[in-house]
Structures are given as C-alpha cells and as structure tokens.
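Forum > Structural Biology > Help requests

Title: Can anyone predict the 3D structure of Imidazole glycerol phosphate synthase subunit HisH?

Hi all, first post here. I have the sequence for Imidazole glycerol phosphate synthase subunit HisH but no way to get a structure on my laptop. I'd be grateful if someone could post the structure tokens.
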Amino acid sequence: MTIAVIDYGMGNLHSVAKALEHVTHENVIVTRDARRIRGATRLVLPGQGAIRDCMGELEKTELRGLVEELLARQAKPLLGICVGQQMLLDHSEENGGIGCLGFLRGEVRKFPTDMRDDRNNRLKVPHMGWNLVHQHHDHPLWAGIDQDEHFYFVHSYYVDATDDATVFGTTEYGRVNAHVAIGRDATFAVQFHPEKSSRAGLKLLENFVQWTP
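Reply #1:
Sure, ran it for you. Structure tokens for Imidazole glycerol phosphate synthase subunit HisH below:
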C-alpha cells in the first residue's frame, strides 16, 4: 500500500508527506515517476504559488496527461491541496486567465481588494491564517471533525464551483463564500493546508488514508 505525493516541482511536498507519515503506516513517497504514481493506492496533488507556474510545471514534467487520465478513471482516491484544489476547476482568473484541468465545473476567482469585516475593518488579501470551515455536505473525510472547525489558509484566489453537489465545505471571508472543500467520486480537494491545521488537519488526512470510495 503506497501513497504517492505527486512531485511536479510545485507545492509543500515534504511537509505533506511528513503529515501523512504521522497518521498512517502505509508507505508515503514523493515522486514524479509515472510508473510509481500509477502503482500507488492513493494520490495527493499538492500545489503552491501561482496557478500559471503550477500548470506550466505539470506540462513541463509531462505529468498533466497522467493526472488527467487518473482523474477520468477515478480508480483510486486522490486528495488535492491548496492550488492542487484550484487546478481541478475549468479556469482561473490568476495571471490574466489560465485554463485548468476541467475535472470540476467552476472558476477560480480573486478576492476583492476592498473587503471589510462586520466592524468595517479592512480584510487583508491574501487570506492568511485560521478560519472556520462549514461542512456543506456529509463526506467520509469529515468523520470525527466538528462542524465549523478551524483550518489554516494562505490564498489570494478562491474556488467558485458551479455544481452545489460538488461543494463539501465553505469559508466566509468578507462577503465571499469560498468553496474550500470540493469533490466528486474518488476525488476530494481542499483550499486549506491540512498539514498545517493541527488536530483537525491530521484527522482529515487520517480519514483520507482510510477512505474507500
């Protein structure tokens, strides 16, 4: 049993791998080897930085076709993290507009720069720090995690999914209701960083390694 963290040159790879090792006795590897990725029992698609760079590196490492194939087949569980969530959508507004993988319908949008909280204090972009996540639909990855639990975020862009059935968690930041947990079939993806989210984040990773879609 092997969990493969897909290494296409972007993302918080090793901290994700260390967090997974903390919650499972399964073998955890960080790899860009197509054979090892195909042979893994579970997959993690991380991402960090600009979407243009992430999509570009996925092309450069010749892993885009493999990731698209694995998403289409849905033969094994896959967890997307941060920009790894955003990449699953149709399109992102970042970098002047970037086409993404199109696995899930929707758009990645930029937070408005003039957002304010209920006391009229200006909210910072990027959205950075702890924020609660409201579970929008039941899912096995929410098992043992309280409703409105806090997770750790760092992002300037957010997912706006088209199909409500694919939205499993939301976060309110200013007037924006961001879709921070999305999924379909054997794929689940989150905008927050479970590897940096203390007990709740580790519980979500533990649920992922036990998930049988």
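Residues 43 and 78 are 5 Å apart (CA to CA). Helices lie at 13-23, 34-39, 51-60, 64-73, 83-86, 198-210.
Shout if anything looks off.
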